[in-house]
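User: Hey, my collaborator sent me this sequence without any context and asked if I could get a structure. I don't really work with proteins. Can you help?
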Amino acid sequence: MSLDVYPHILIGGGTNSGKTRLLQLLLKQCYEKDYQITIADFKGMVDFPLSWREKVRLIDDKKELIEFLDLLICELQRRKILFAQRMCRDIGDFTKRYPAEMNRIIFACDEVAELLDATGATKEEKDEINKISHRLAQIARLGRAFGIHLFLACQRSSSDVISGQIKNNISYRVCGRADSVLSK
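Assistant: No problem. I've predicted the 3D structure and written it out in structure-token form, which is a compact way to encode the shape of the chain:
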């Protein structure tokens, strides 16, 4: 699979349908290509043991995640300016001309509903969720051209969890085992 063709990935499916395993396999391929990888895991990081922590950045705190996403948006803006200055249309064009200067960035989230579900959240928690959702939407809209990619896994990608802004910009979707309601 080429990130030039499918820049963002949404993995769905019921419990124990292989979402995390597929996410791990995709991320291992990215690691082998020397991509910069950050994983948000709010399930206690049990699926990403110590060996992963040596290879990638793991985040399990929402405030730390918001700071990281802010930096990612800054990097996106930096790349946008750099590509314009060097008259490159996208990451593929840029890396052909300047191969050693830049690499792709992957942001993955295992069980994104743990980040974005506002059910029962306090006002402060809803504010955090809105910040995260807004930043993910911006990356989903603009990240492809600049080599910044989202890999999101969830049981249900309903609109109350993942906004249309995000889903509409994710062209590669995989659904594991799911009941008929979930698969829709």
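In plain terms: Strands lie at 9-12, 36-41, 57-59, 105-110, 148-154, 172-175. You can pass these tokens on to your collaborator as they are.
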